[in-house]
Amino acid sequence: MRVLLVGAGGVGTAITRIAARRSFFEALVVADYDPARADAAVAALDGDDRFHAERVDAGDEAAVADLLARHRCDVLLNATDPRFVMPLFRAARTTGATYVDMAMSLSRPHPDRPYEECGVRLGDAQFAEAGDWAAAGALALVGMGVEPGLSDVFARYAADELFDEIEEIGIRDGANLTVEGHDFAPSFNIWTTIEECLNPPVVYEADRGWFTTAPFSEPEVFDFPEGIGPVECVNVEHEEVLLVPRWVKARRVTFKYGLGNAFIETLKTLHLLGLDRTAPVTVPSASGPVSVSPRDVVAACLPDPATLGELMHGKTCAGTWVRGVKDGAPREVYLYHVVDNQWSMAEYGSQAVVWQTAVNPVVALELLTTGAWSGAGVLGPEAFPPRPFLDLLTAYGSPWGQREQ
Amino acid sequence: MRVLLVGAGGVGTAITRIAARRSFFEALVVADYDPARADAAVAALDGDDRFHAERVDAGDEAAVADLLARHRCDVLLNATDPRFVMPLFRAARTTGATYVDMAMSLSRPHPDRPYEECGVRLGDAQFAEAGDWAAAGALALVGMGVEPGLSDVFARYAADELFDEIEEIGIRDGANLTVEGHDFAPSFNIWTTIEECLNPPVVYEADRGWFTTAPFSEPEVFDFPEGIGPVECVNVEHEEVLLVPRWVKARRVTFKYGLGNAFIETLKTLHLLGLDRTAPVTVPSASGPVSVSPRDVVAACLPDPATLGELMHGKTCAGTWVRGVKDGAPREVYLYHVVDNQWSMAEYGSQAVVWQTAVNPVVALELLTTGAWSGAGVLGPEAFPPRPFLDLLTAYGSPWGQREQ
Description:
NAD(P)-bd_dom_sf (chains A, B), saccharopine dehydrogenase (NAD+, L-lysine-forming) activity (chains A, B), alpha/beta, 14 helices, Sacchrp_dh_NADP-bd (chains A, B), EC 1.5.1.7 (chains A, B), Rossmann fold, 2 domains, globular, Saccharopine dehydrogenase (NAD+, L-lysine-forming) (chains A, B), nine-stranded mixed beta sheet, homodimer, Dihydrodipicolinate Reductase, domain 2, about 400 residues
C-alpha cells in the first residue's frame, strides 16, 4: 500500500507517528498547503524512508490527482478540514485510488425550516457519487476517524453481538481535559467545532427518517467512564446519525457532544455576534480595507489545539451508548474508548483528542491491506465486520471498554 | 465662532442637526476620514451655507492644523473615537483653537497590579499639557458629551445647590432600548464599549485617591426613572471618576454602567476568546494572509449603531446619583436626563444614545460664545457654573430631572 496523506496538522502528524510503528505499508507521502508542516512531520520520524513530504493545495483536485499519480499512491487519506472533502474525494476517484476520510462533505440547512427538516445532509454530496465508486469496484471509506469511525464500528458490533433488537443508538462524547494557563482552549479545531455545534443537529428515527432540531437540543447529563464523570451533553450535527442507519437497524440514532455548559454559552455568544460566520466581512487594516471570515479570526485568536498537548491534563472519551433487547430482556450498554492525554503525550507526543482521531484510520488502512476489510462503493465503518477492527485497535496498545448499565 | 467638527459618524452627524437649529456660530466645517460621511451630513441640512464638508485623517495632526487654519476655525470639536484624542488636542493647541471633546485620552493598565492600581489614567496625557494651555490662555474643555459631560455638570450642580457635604457621587447610566430584528445590537460604538468595559474600572476615594478594581465589580441594581426601571449596573472605567474629584469635593466617586447581565456575559466571552484585543492577528484571506485587529472584526460583524434608530424602541437615561448631607439631614438625589428614541428620531432623525451625547457639546459651544462659560487650561465640565448649562439644555427642548430618594 502506498498512501497519500493530505493534511499535516495535528491529526495528520499523529497519523504519521502511529503509522511509523507499523509495517503494513510501503510509502506514505505527507502533503500540506504549508510545506513546513509536511517537512516537520516527516523530519520527526528519524529517517524512516517510507515517508516523503510534499506541498499541495487540497482544494486543487488536479494537483492532488497529479500527486497521487506521481507517487503511485493507491490510497488517499484525507486529514484536512471538511471544506476539502469533495476535491480530494474526486481526485481519488479520478486516479482509481481508495479514499479514506474522517469527516464527510458539508451540510447546508433547509432554506425555510432549518430546525425541522434537513437541507443538504452531511455526506450527501459523497453518497450522490456512490454509484460511480461501486461500478468501478473502488472504495471510499468515509467517516473513519474516532467519531465518526470507531463510534460506528461500536454500533455495528452492538448490533452483531450484543443485541437482538435496538431501540436507540446514541453516540456520546465527553472529556475532562483542562489546559494549564488557558481559560478557554478547545482541544479540537475550532472551525470544525463551530460548524458541528451551530449547524442544526440531525436526528434519525425509523418512522420519520432524518430530521433536524434547534442547536443544543435535548440536553442530558451522561456519566462518562474512567473517572471523567458526568458531563452535560447536547445534540450536535454529526456523521454517525447519517451513517449508522444505512447499515444498522435501530429505531433512533442521535449524537450528543459533552460540551459542558460554559462552552455551549460561548458558542451561543459567537453566533449571536455573527462571529461564527464564514462569509467575509470588510475590516480596516494597516494596508487598507481587507476581507476576512469572522470564523477564521476566532480561530486565529485561540491557541492551536495541536500544540497544547504539554499543557493539557485529563482524559477524553468517545463511545456508543445502545439500548435495546437481548434474549427477551432489556439491555443498555456503553461501548467506549478513553485516551489519557498523559499517555498519548508520553507515547506519541500527540495530545489525546488528536491521537484518538488519528489511530482509527491507520487501523482501517491496515485492515484494508490484510484484506480483513474489503468492499466497493461509498461505505461507512459500520459496513465492515467490527471484530477485526476492535482487536487490531487493542493490539495498537489502545484498548476499548464495555459498560453494562 | 467658527467650528471644525472632526468625525461625521453617528454623534458628529447628530451634532450638525442640533447645531443647524441654532444661530450662535458662523461656520461649521464637518471633516471625516470618509468624505462620503461628511458630505452626507452636510447635504442633509437643506442648503444651510454655514456648513462645509472636508476630508481629513484625524490621526494626522499637521493636516488637522492646516484645516483649522484654512477655515479660520477658533474651535475644534472632536467627535471621533478616543484613539484620535491626542493628535486633535495638539492640533488645536498649535493653531490656538479652543478644543472640545467627549472622551479623554486613553488609559493603560498598571503593568503589575492592573486591578488594584492605576497605570496611565484616562486624560493623563491631556492633563500633562494643562500648563501649556493655561499659560497660553487657551481652553481645552474635555469630556463634554453626556457621560462624561452632562453627568459632570450634575455633580457640580449638586455640590453648589443641593448639598453641604457629599459622601458619594455615582454616575449611573441605564436604558431599556431594544432593536427590532437584532438579538444583539449595542446602541453605542462597540469599540469604545469594549474599551470602557474591559479596562480595569477606576474608583476615587478621598483618603486613597484613584485606584482600580477587576472589571464588572460592585454590581448593584439601580432603579432608573421614566419607566426604564431596575437594571444591573457595574463599575466601568469612565472619565467622570477622573474629572469630578478635581473640582468637586466628595468622599467617593464611581461610575456604574447598566449593562445588564446578558451584555456583561457577552463582553466576558469576547475577552476570554481574545476577541477584544486590538493587536493584529494574522488571518487567511482570498488575497493571502492579512493582519487585522480582532476588535475591529467584532465591530464589523455588528450593525452600525448609528443606523439602528428606526428599529430601536425605548429610552436611555444618563445621570448622577449623589448622597450626602443638607442642612444637617441626610439627602440622596438622582439628577438625570432621559431621551426617548421615538422623540429623537421624530425630531432629529438621530437615535437616542447618539443624540443624547451630541446635544451637550453644542450647548457648551453656545455658552462659550455667549461668555456664560469661559476659562483657560484643560478643564472638565464641572469647572464651570452648572445653572446656565442646565437652563440652556432645557431651552433646547430636552429637560433634565431631579429625583429625591
